[in-house]
Write a sequence for this structure.
């Protein structure tokens, strides 16, 4: 999320900029006041205000966040309350040559009259960017912090060292200018620097130290303690993209599920999800979020090591016999186009949703180390070849593993490096996907998806590929272990 940009549309309107105080270190909201003398077109019949606003578009003040329509109390120019339109700077009440022809016509027709207007601007009139630009020294303004991650009511900053002296000011103004924000924090270390749960140390810069948040995503509600679990609001689009690949009735294994950003939305579309996370707090929130979103019957939660979970979940799924009665959601009433009268739909036929014996997808969302979990797939279905093609219609599962790499314009080198590492971990070559020609319609199953930039020279990817039979059915040389 980013804050709004400067109030002015151009640099000619210095008169609308806030007063400057480069020495301010504690926010003084009362300091930000300014009086601006303008002209206004007072409309005699308030019913015409919308029409004249269009007619006088070129005359009216064009300043972002500044409403041009104002109320005028009784004064020396009018004995009743009226509506007026603020006119652009340079419009003079005593100089008709500064008026447009249309304004001159309306004045001559006694529909409006031009009068002086005293505009009072205060702290509420300016954006975050306007206020901070008036405080931070000009030589520090090349990269004023304007972006932040909103997690429920918490704004999460990652301030550069040069802006730490102004951190309290920045946080206070940001909180004031974003009504949904009640707490502002700044990260003081790197994610995962001291633990495997991807949590981080932080300091509260503004508001209460309350990290119990509620987040809405993909028509789901998530509640969790942001100080104890991992969540990244910037992955909203990626969550949606991957969940869209899952089909109702499939089984998905979410190995590093967190609080459920993949698992819960998938379950809401009738996907069976086996969801695991090593962090007990994430597991607790996952269970609560499944209950909150009424998908407990479709989510099998676990709190264990991801390496072992990949294998035990595959074995347990084979031996599972769960099923669920699903009734399609149909509105109780509707209206016909002809009669506009309500009618009741007949009861929708119930469907028995049986849990499959194998997973269709594995999700490994731990970018720093997810690829190191791939050896767990070696021999995953050794001795169980009969569950898959050509003996059945079932394909081996797709694996979606998140990882970091360098960044380039075409990602060609990154695709090659990621596939080389996957191949090394599996002991089997996974070829990098080709750049598809425009006329080609057939899609390759191997895909290296560009998720987002995380640093100037670092990018997050999602490597998706189908588990090769040569890997899945291979006897494990270390133990000879098979899925039972």
């Amino acid at each position: 999320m980013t804050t709004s940009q400067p109030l002015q549309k151009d640099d000619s309107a210095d008169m609308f900029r806030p007063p400057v105080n480069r020495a301010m270190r504690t926010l003084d909201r009362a300091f930000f006041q300014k009086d601006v003398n303008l002209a206004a077109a007072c409309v005699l019949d308030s019913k015409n205000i919308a029409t004249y606003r269009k007619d006088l578009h070129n005359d009216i003040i064009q300043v972002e966040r500044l409403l041009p329509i104002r109320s005028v109390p009784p004064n020396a120019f009018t004995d009743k309350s009226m509506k007026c339109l603020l006119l652009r700077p340079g419009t003079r009440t005593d100089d008709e040559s500064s008026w447009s022809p249309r304004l001159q016509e309306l004045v001559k027709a006694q529909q409006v009259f031009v009068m002086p207007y005293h505009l009072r601007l205060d702290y509420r009139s300016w954006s975050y960017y306007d206020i901070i630009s008036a405080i931070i020294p000009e030589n520090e303004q090349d990269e004023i912090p304007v972006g932040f991650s909103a997690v429920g009511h918490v704004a999460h900053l990652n301030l550069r060292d040069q802006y730490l002296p102004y951190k309290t000011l920045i946080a206070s103004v940001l909180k004031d200018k974003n009504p949904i924000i009640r707490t502002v924090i700044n990260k003081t270390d790197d994610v995962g620097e001291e633990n495997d749960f991807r949590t981080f140390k932080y300091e509260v810069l503004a508001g209460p130290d309350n990290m119990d948040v509620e987040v809405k995503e993909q028509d789901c509600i998530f509640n969790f303690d942001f100080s104890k679990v991992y969540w990244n609001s910037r992955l909203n689009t990626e969550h949606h993209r991957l969940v869209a690949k899952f089909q109702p009735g499939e089984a998905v294994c979410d190995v590093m599920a967190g609080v459920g950003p993949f698992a819960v939305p998938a379950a809401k579309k009738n996907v069976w999800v086996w969801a695991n996370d090593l962090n007990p707090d994430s597991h607790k929130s996952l269970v609560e979020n499944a209950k909150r979103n009424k998908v407990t019957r479709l989510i099998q939660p676990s709190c264990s090591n991801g390496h072992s979970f990949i294998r035990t979940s595959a074995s347990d799924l084979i031996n599972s016999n769960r099923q669920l009665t699903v009734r399609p959601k149909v509105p109780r009433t509707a209206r016909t186009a002809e009669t506009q009268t309500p009618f009741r739909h007949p009861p929708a036929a119930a469907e028995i949703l049986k849990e499959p014996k194998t997973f269709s997808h594995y999700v490994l969302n731990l970018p720093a180390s997810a690829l190191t979990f791939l050896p767990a797939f070696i021999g995953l279905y050794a001795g169980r070849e009969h569950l898959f093609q050509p003996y059945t219609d079932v394909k081996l599962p797709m694996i979606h593993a998140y990882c970091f790499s360098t960044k380039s314009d075409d990602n060609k080198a990154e695709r090659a490096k990621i596939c080389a590492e996957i191949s090394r971990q599996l002991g089997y070559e996974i070829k990098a996907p080709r750049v598809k020609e425009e006329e080609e319609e057939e899609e390759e199953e191997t895909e290296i998806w560009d998720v987002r930039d995380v640093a100037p020279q670092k990018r997050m990817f999602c490597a998706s590929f189908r588990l090769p039979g040569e890997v899945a059915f291979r006897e494990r040389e270390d133990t000879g272990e098979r899925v039972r």
